[in-house]
Amino acid sequence: MDETFSSSRTSEISERILLNVCSKLQRNNIKVAALIMKCEEVDHNGDGFVHYKDIRELMNSILPFKDWITEREMVHICSALKSTGETSIKDNGGVAYIRLFDVLDESKYGKNSRIRYERWMDDDDLEIEKWATQKGSLGEWLKRAACPAEIKNFKKLISRLEDYERSSGMNCSRTPDGFIIPMGPDLKASVQFYTS
């Protein structure tokens, strides 16, 4: 019983520390994608791994002094990476920096729940309600007329757009009938939904 309590308490503390790191990044408008791009610059052999001390140094180079990442916070980041179940940490301290998305996504940490979902993928009914803002809208159509396959594919598309946002560091913007997807400073793509 004491082990369960201790394990639960340790997990809670670790989650709080990771949320604090996420808050530091968010407060300073630093996206995890930008951090990963910095890691790619110092990944000279291109194996996808950078030493954890180098990652901490990179984070501290883009954060103001008051928000620097402590050694303790870095230990919790590495511990969370180990728990992802994939080869995220090498014995020599190398970190698979692309996996930072998995542990530094603030939406994963909540007050009472262990994991929260992506902002567009909260709950099936709530997700569709978000889109059902007016009569004749996409959300209303999804809620009232779409078949299960259309709803499933819509959710997959939204999930892929979120993956793109995380990896590119750019934010897609909603339009009344779709999305504008930035591809750089000047180039944009649009997705428009319509029914036949």
Helix vs. strand class: mainly alpha
Shape: elongated
Mean pLDDT: 77
Radius of gyration: 20 Å
The total beta strand count reads 5
* Content of β-strand: 5-15%
Low-confidence spans: 1-5, 110-128
Helical region count? 8
Give the distance, in angstroms, between the N- and C-terminal Cα atoms.
59 Å
In spatial order, strands of the major sheet run: 3-4-5
- N-to-C order of helices and strands: HHEHHEHHHHEEE
Give a description of the structure.
This protein is 51% helix and 10% strand. The chain is mainly α. The strands form two sheets. The protein has a three-stranded antiparallel sheet, with no helix packed on it. It has a two-stranded antiparallel ribbon with strand order 1-2. The relative contact order is 0.10. Mean pLDDT is 77; it is low at 1-5 and 110-128.
In short:
Helix content is 51%, strand content 10%. The protein has helices spanning 2-27, 32-42, 52-62, 71-82, 100-103, 124-131, 138-144, 148-168; strands at 49-51, 94-96, 173-175, 178-182, 188-192.
